[in-house]
Amino acid sequence: MKKTHLMTCTGAAALILFAPNVFAQSSVTLYGIVDTSVRYLTNADSANNNQISMGEGVETPSRWGLKGSEDLGGGLSAIFKLENQFQLWSGKLDNTNNTLFQRNAYVGLSSNQYGAVTVGRQQTPFFDMMGNIYDPMTVGDYWQDNWVYNPVGPFLFTNSSVKYNGHFGGLNVEGMYGFGGVPGSTGENSMYGLTASYAVGPLSADVGFQQNDVSGKKFNIVNVSAVYAFTSDVKFLAGWLHSQDNTGLADLDMQQAGAPVLPRVSPNRIDDSFYVGSTWQVTSPLALTLAGYYDHARNAATLDGALGVGINYSATVLAEYSLSKRTEVYGTVDFTRGTGAFLADYPGRNNQTGVAVGLRNIF
Predict the structure, then answer these.
(1) Of 294, 311, 127, 301, nearest to 210 (Cα)?
(2) Predicted confidence (pLDDT) at residue 13 exceeds the cutoff of 70
(3) Any signal peptide, and if so, which residues (predicted)?
(4) What residue spans of the chain are helical by DSSP H?
(5) What is the DSSP string of 172-185?
(6) Of 127, 179, 207, 312, which is most buried with the most CB atoms under 10 A?
(7) With 50 as the cut, is the pLDDT of residue 8 above it?
(8) 247-271, pLDDT tens digit by residue?
(9) Residue 15, pLDDT above cutoff 60
(10) Residue 219: which domain range?
(11) How far apart are CA 260 and CA 304, in angstroms?
């Protein structure tokens, strides 16, 4: 018994001595963003009343998350991410289906040489590229500066998906497949997406395709985007988005809250959207962003129950001032106007002007 006790103590001591080396190879990080704004908006309802309200930030919804990695040796690591989104002004989860980790919930393996493979609920390759690099507003949060993305909005994240992300010199390749999970049909409710971007000198360009199946009906989007850095402080961004929707969801998802009820939805809506923008780091704390969006819709649902064309356009100016490395204040002004089928997307008159100020802290 004494010998066994001695061996147990010796083993425990060895484990304690060895533990710092084990834990040094792993890391878990708590991170997040808290962001909210006060916004004035014209023509906010069917009576064309103006509105002052507190709500989400202009670019970054509030979130918190956990991410971690474990070094497995040989340049291979195990990785995971759990990321939540919430309403700072109300404290509620920012979704209607009570999803705790609506932004990301995945685990995977990452290789320094071959890239990363992850599985779970994840951002699509399209959202990765547009939100992180190629859209001047990083896919903004106000309807007036993100409406171009509303048709693809329900498909920016995918459940039950496997994703690959690889970097090879200036080339970045991402691919994703989402399992539909429907017995007897591997394609129903599935998705797949691919992007390829290449950076050379001051120019970076991206092409991508994504297809989502909804109960056997398809939504497709193609994008071509580019960023050119004139200097380290001044960048120009431009792109084209082409979407085709057979699900009928695009007509509904394009609408603002309070917009009129549509008599019918289109079985084959087609949108061609263009955007241009510029970011300028004026001084160390001050950054300016200019963005303009234009969309031409065909076969879109109209208020009289027919299908027709429509044009919508918007312009946004955003000024951000850093108080520290983690905290900034910002102000933004935007204008948007629609005609034709886009009249169905406004609660009142077919134009709106918004002015907002906000505060963001990153931790």
Answers:
(1) 127
(2) no
(3) 1-24
(4) 2-24, 125-129, 143-146, 249-253
(5) EEEEEEE---BTTB
(6) 312
(7) no
(8) 999 999 999 999 999 999 999 999 9
(9) no
(10) 28-362
(11) 11
Q: Which of 50, 44, 52 is nearest to 259 (CA)?
A: 44
pLDDT of residue 22 exceeding 90: no
Contact criterion met (CB below 8 Å) for 279 and 234? yes
Q: What CATH number did the domain enclosing 189 receive? A: 2.40.160.10
Q: Look up tokens 């050379």; give the residue.
A: 200
Numbers of helices and strands, H then E, in the chain: 4, 17
47 within a domain of the structure (yes/no): yes
Residue 49 domain flag: yes
Q: How far is CA 328 from CA 90, 241, 287, 324, in A?
A: 21, 31, 11, 7
Q: What is the C-alpha to C-alpha distance for residues 60 and 53, in angstroms, rounded to an integer?
A: 17
Token match 């797949």: residue? Answer: 192
CB 236: neighbour CB atoms within 10 A? Answer: 17
* The residue type at 251: D
CA distance 44 to 314: 16
What does the pLDDT average to over 69-86? Answer: 97
130 class by beta-carbon count within 10 Å (0-12 exposed, 13-18 middle, 19+ buried): buried
Q: Which backbone phi and psi does 263 adopt, to 5 degrees?
A: -65, -30
pLDDT in tens, 29-61: 999 999 999 999 999 999 999 999 999 999 999
For residue 306, which amino acid is it?
A
Q: Could you tell me the pLDDT band of residue 25, with boundaries at 50, 70 and 90? A: confident
Taking a C-beta distance cutoff of 8 angstroms, is the pair 152, 125 a contact? no
Instruction: Look at the chain and report how many structural domains it folds into.
Output: 1
User: What pLDDT does residue 297 have?
Assistant: 98
The answer to whether residue 17 sits within a structural domain is: no
SS3 253: helix
Beta strands, E only, 170-268:
171-178, 191-200, 203-214, 217-229, 234-245
Task: Report whether 196 contacts 171 (CB < 8 A).
Answer: yes
Q: How confident is the model at residue 98 (pLDDT cuts 50, 70, 90)?
A: confident
Structural domain contains residue 19: no
Please compute the mean of the pLDDT values over residues 330-349 and round it to a whole number: 98
Distance CA(66)–CA(87), nearest Å, equals: 18
SS3 138: coil
> What torsion do the CA atoms of 139, 292, 314, 288 make, to the nearest 10 degrees?
70
